[in-house]
Design brief:
2 copies of one chain form a homodimer. With 243 residues, chain A is an alpha/beta fold. In chain A, 40% of the residues lie in helices and 24% in strands. The longest helix of chain A has 28 residues.
Chain lengths: 243, 243
């Protein structure tokens, strides 16, 4: 794990790093090193480790909860090289959708393909980050919506260190079997008028989660219209389960 | 409005009252009289103004938010006389359900009948209670689930003083048109495995609400299994909209 920058502002330390092929960002509270809860953030499609939505949530989790937060770039995103295979599939999918194919199953299949890389990558990121004195081996949470949900479901299912997860804006089609293996508390976000994820598919994914404690939060609006108060809810949810 | 008892414990004043034919309970914080937000609680079927669930929520709203809370007995409940008409309908409904009829439409029809009395009654309760110096004419919220949702939808639709509502464990069948007239923020509670309210009917009621801001909170479990953390959510919701 190689750090490329190390800065601090408003009591929040930000370190950019590269772990093997994976560029990532780590945020921690300034002050004495001690073990603390760690949230891994999975960014959305087209976003990256320092996209505005990621940065806002990361800084709030550090400042308001005292947690550590890590965000890796997904392959083909941020500082990672273009993935010709992914671009080829995306182009082919666009053509199939224009020819009348349902977008949701194509997207789910694509997420499953990318997750075969991100699940082991994110586990390696947890290994590396939890060895740092200012993070330590505290409880882990995961938060990802949209692409971050498609990649998060197999990650949370596979990784026993994750003790609570916020997921959403995703559908069930490829991941129902993995969702059933998730048993930790989940807060699941659904946009009632989501133009990308059919409502029935999102409800089916919530239904498929194996967790005894899971809460669906549905709000009116399209895929990108998540209300700001749901960020407050995410902080409270992680505070309740990891704090 | 005639008060029959006036007691105080743990900083919370409780007054039982009778307004015309309506017995009710009023809770307010001890201390100087001033206008404050007021929550009207609609109790569940078979419950009454001082049922444990009503009392717990009322005392928390007073102690943690500084609000006033009023809970009237629904006709045929608590200290009110038996309603032979309601009992006759309930008996007939049970027979029809045993003979194979769907329970949900029968329940919805019954709630609509009772609401023709409770809507004007609850408006009169607001009039009377808001004239008291220790309540005053602050913003009003409504909270009711199950029977309290069936009666609450027409009440919130009719009463412009209500500025935010927590509803749930109810279905759309009789009240979709009234739900569409509700425009205030709503938090809507749904039990995913509700044995009394079909999931599709509950989702349809959420869908029918005319509010620009409305959030569905769905949790696993049966009609009576609402998780305790949803009470925290109710307090935060009213704090955000009325506080």
């Amino acid at each position: 794990m190689r750090f490329t920058t190390d800065t601090s502002s408003d009591g929040i330390r930000e370190q950019l790093f590269v772990l093997g092929e994976i560029p990532g960002a780590l945020w921690t509270p300034d002050g004495p090193a001690r073990p603390r809860p760690l949230i891994l953030l999975g960014h959305g499609g087209g976003e990256h480790k320092k996209a505005p939505a990621v940065l806002t949530l990361a800084r709030r989790l550090v400042a308001e909860c005292g947690f550590a937060v890590v965000a890796p770039d997904v392959p083909g995103h941020g500082d990672r090289p273009v993935q010709e295979e992914y671009d080829r599939i995306a182009t082919a999918n666009r053509a199939r959708i224009e020819a009348g194919a349902e977008p949701a199953p194509l997207l789910a299949e694509f997420h499953a393909l990318v997750a075969r890389r991100t699940v082991p990558e994110w586990r390696a990121v947890l290994d590396a980050v939890q060895r740092l004195d200012h993070v330590g081996a505290g409880p882990v949470g995961y938060r990802g919506i949209s692409l971050g949900c498609g990649l998060g479901v197999p990650f949370v299912a596979a990784e026993p260190r994750v003790r609570a997860a916020v997921l959403g804006l995703g559908g069930a089609i490829a991941s129902a079997a993995e969702a059933a293996r998730i048993t930790v508390p989940v807060e699941f976000l659904l946009q009632w008028d989501d133009e990308r994820v059919p409502r029935a598919a999102a409800l089916a994914l919530f239904e498929a989660l194996g967790s005894a404690e899971k809460t669906l939060h549905a709000n009116p609006g399209r895929h990108g219209d998540l209300p700001a108060f749901e960020l407050d809810g995410t902080l409270r949810f992680f505070g309740r389960h990891l704090g």
